[in-house]
Amino acid sequence: MEQSLKKTDRPPYGIIAVLMIGAFIAFLNNTLLNIALPSIMVELEIEAATVQWLTTGFMLVNGILIPATAFLIEKYSVRRLFLVAMGLFTIGTVVAGMAHDFPVLLTGRMLQASGSAIMMPLLMNVMLVSFPVEKRGAAMGVFGLILMAAPAIGPTLSGWIIEHYDWRMLFHFVTPIAVVIFLIGFFLLKDKKEKVNISLDFFSLILSSIGFGGILYGFSSAGSKGWDSPHVYITIPVGVICLVWFILRQSKLERPMLNFQVFKYPMFALSSSIAMVVNMAMFAGMLLVPIYVQTLRGISPLDAGLLMLPGALAMALMSPINGRLFDKVGGRILAVIGLVIMVVTTYLFSNLTLDLSYTHLMLLHAVRMFGMSMVMMPVSTNGLNQLPRRLYPHGTAMNNTLNQVSGAIGTALLVTIMSNRTETHATEMAKSLTAPPTEAAMAQLKAQAMLEGINDAFFVASIIAAVALVLAFFIKRSTPAEDPIQEKPKAQVNTKLAEN
What we know:
Number of helices: 20
Strand order of the largest sheet: 1-2
């Protein structure tokens, strides 16, 4: 459907700025929490399998709600959606900051997720309809710079706060900022939207929730409960069945909740495939590096955050540069070079030892993130560029949903490989001993077995990244496709965004 933002000589920078600030604080909140998980485990007396639901639950809510955002963007104004999203996120932040037991903390996280799920597709859609194709790469590059600044700041800031304050301070720190952003949006966003006569197909919403939710829950549970758990072998098939039913139902509806026709456009389908594969490989660094650094090397949370800071900064600073390069040379060259770097560095990570220097790890991680910066945004933008304008909300919703699903699959796969290979290596090492090991020797054996398990998981991640590299050679520069469907009358769909 034709969206409300008119492409003029001067895009609505005020509206985009407000949305970007809201998205930034949501991203910052996620990166703040990762390093705090061990502290939360200790204080609330919970296990790793339980605390991981602060991340998995967030991902689950996103996976359930994001498919509905295409409908919400078509139905409601940017102002209304932003205020609802920021309001939910703020309430969730307050609840989580007051939590003294795990259920309350998890409730706060899920409220945060319900707001975050709306924020990202909304911002992406506004960016797409505000800039012409030839300027979209540069605009997306600036967008990437702002969002990648959150991962750059988050781990280091979180490590410092955790070492000096209670983990709840992470939420107390975010709360006043979220309130200010909500008030800025309330007073500055003035866009209007004429009434659109569409309604949500609730049966599609149910199928989507069970489908995407079941798949996300199943794969997320596999990492902690094992593949032979009923939480896995029941929920994943049920999720797949409901998802297939959901897709078939969308093809028969006049106004589908999530339009799978986006996959008829080859560059969008290709970009989605590459993004999913890269997402799976990306989780190797996000999951395995912190485990290696903190668990095996005993590096403090603050130093662990500082180790990952140069990589996050490299990704943030390269984002606008890659955006301008994308406008000039297209996505294929950037993606191929970036994925070559990713494959090589991920493979090098599969040769970790217990005595690698801090500087070596920092540089290797920074180069890997530098390569990744050349892949995600250019590939995604190139795919979205081929869609006709009315499918922008569905394209952004589809991309965000697939990112959640591939993230869950990648997490489950790599955690399972690490766990299984750690157990296998420990058994083999124990058999090779000629005498009963001392307590210190057993601790060293377990550490070495975990190291080998992490290396094996990184090796699989390098193979996954190599698959994305092969796919990247088929990328072609996209131009907007002609829409075969006649546009609806302007009176029905035209919306006006007035900039302050």
